[in-house]
Amino acid sequence: MVIEHIDAQIPGAILDRHAFRGDQTIVVAKENLLSVVDLLHREGFQLLVDITAVDWPEREQRFDVVYHWLNLASQERLRLKVPVADGESVPTLALQFKTANWFEREVFDLFGIRFEGHPDLRRLLTWEDFPGHALRKDFPLDGGDVFCMEACTAPYNNGERN
Amino acid sequence: MESIAMTRQMLDGDKMIVNMGPSHPTTHGTLRIVLELQGETITKATPEMGYLHRGVEKLAESLSYQQFIPLTDRLNYCSAIMNNVGYSTAVEKLLDIQIPKRAEQIRVLVSELSRIADHIVCVGVNAVDIGAFTAFLYLFKQRETVYDLFEMAAGQRLHTSFTRIGGLFRDIPEGFVPATERFLVECSAAIDELERLLTHNPIWHDRTKGIGAISAEDAVNWGYTGPCLRAAGVPQDLRKAQPYLGYETYDFDIPIGTTGDVFDRYLVRVEEMRQSLRIIRQVLDRLEPGPVMVDDPKVALPPKEKVYTRMESLIHHFKLIMHGMEMPVGEVYSATEAANGELGFYIISDGGKNPYRIRVRPPCLPIFSSFEDQVKGGLIADAVSVLGAMNIIAGELDR
Amino acid sequence: MAEMNINDAVMTTRLDAVVNWGRKNSLWPMPFGVACCAIEFMSMMSSKYDLSRFGAEAMRFSPRQSDMMLILGTITNKMAPVLRTIYAQMAEPKWVISVGVCASSGGMYRTYATLQGVDRVIPVDVYVPGCPPRPESMIYGVMKLQEKIEKESMSMRKDHIQRFYDSLARQESIQAEKGLTSQQTIREMLMDAGERGVGTIF
After folding, report:
1. In whole angstroms, what is the distance from residue C18 CA to residue C152 CA?
2. Within the 52-111 window of chain C, which residues sit less than 8 Å (CB to CB) from chain A?
3. Fewest Cβ atoms nearer than 10 Å: which of A144, B185, C106, C111?
4. pTM here?
5. Of C79, C108, C114, which is closest to B70 when you measure between CB atoms?
């Protein structure tokens, strides 16, 4: 099992692990991320399926950057989590895995987590000067637009409401 | 890196900037590609997306699990049922429940119908972009028949919301099986007609062979899944590799390409349509009567007759609607083989009525991000072919 | 041609009738297809439902060569300035049909990213509800537009189109003055209008 290999070759890298409904998850600190990923790549986990993030605002290390890996030869999946605090940045995987490029841009856009070494870190889904980061728990669903949540139509007579 | 504002300026001398989109004739939804051209050759291509970002993942945090199902329809809108099936499978994995046999079989049936419909749109629209309009018109007749079947089963043509957590919305009606059998015959003939039009057509070969080729290692590095990955030579299909819904019991093949170019992607999709017809044939042969919804009052709404006559069913109904299902605390990632590739749902539950976070892993995002590599050094006309073969559906790309 | 001042009432009515008959039977659609409604539009243009019976076969994706814009799908806040630019590029007379609930009112997406109804930023003539509307509903929408065109008078430029161009000028001046992107400018104009209790920005 790859988790044992990681434990053997990079001791102390895995901060926590659990399995739930057949999914294996390990938690790794951001300093060890690149070395763990290198090891995974050599063990055959070559398809980086997804990068995303989760916001836990009560925790001190507010965000969890979540990576999903797939081993094409053995069809094993692995979830890797890296906890970061607000304002901290995570090393980028975009140079080694080209798929990480846009996934990391999306995480930056929606959560505000920066990735060091990323060749082109700009927003992906919202526009350049969008105020705030949309998927944070303290960002309102309507983005501050009063009209959005009111049940009104925009009628035609000079824009005045009846 | 220069910003997109460069669109308004001419670069030095002989380079020209051409903006493709976000409103453009290729009906692939709203994308934007800023092309830098030297004559007809592309020197740089910057894709930009997000024009259909509707905020689905944020909206999911204020809806219950069952209420998210109509939102999944609108992800890959060409094959809506596969998204429903993918999401319901993910929530069922989280709940650790097993749906009845008949529900599994019908889910396979409508998923494969949906896969055929999606490939019809992809191949048809790809052909229209290149100029072969007839294929589209012939194929769309089959898509209309698929719409009729969906309407019979679920009541809606396009956004069916057919699955529920724990099974299906309702059982398929009387005329569905004979109509599907007729469809199998007609569709087979239509695919033969399509192949007669395109597969040995020299103009089609000129426009698609050698365009957008990609090697297997590059495809894996870019995160490709689905027909584009299989066209590059990697035999990865979740229906065979990590079977779900009983796919291991069906007899079908996975078409694998060699060069990964547009022609191979077209051939892979056409052959997948034939294999889907094969799977549908097998489902129809072994369809057995039974319930289509799991018999667990904590998950499934009880039938209306019981709600009106028995107290405990009324209470269960009330609890399910007002308090939602009882979810365990935990997280799960579940992927199914959608028409475009691996459609993944990463669901985090904190035990409450609404999910804490739902992440949709779009299969076409990594494929679209590799667009520049695919077209650099090619002609601008090839950019159109490549874009068509990637099957970018903006609904799932941007969510 | 729009400025003709013909004082003879009978002649004007006859001319209006002839011109409107010509216009309504040769509506060239510009499908502004962005999402799922575009797939139902494709069904509508195919042989089963067939919009070309109504004279609307010449589907031009260029705004400069069409007179009816069909907004097919969710318009997000990122897409709103693009929609306004394309609408401005159409030559008059021009009409807009907003197809589907996402374009008409934001649909089920009450979020930070979705424009809550296309009529907040451009003038709309006919709304077709549905998610997605059946091709028959869309054809009915086009027929309703034809009825509307029949009753128009060709001598007056429509008030709402003039207000739209005024709002476009206002948008450009705000953009230049504050240095924002067009999306953020429109968003600020919308939030401003929302706070004043007005739905639209034109």
Report:
1. 11
2. 77-78, 105-106, 110-111
3. B185
4. 0.90
5. C108
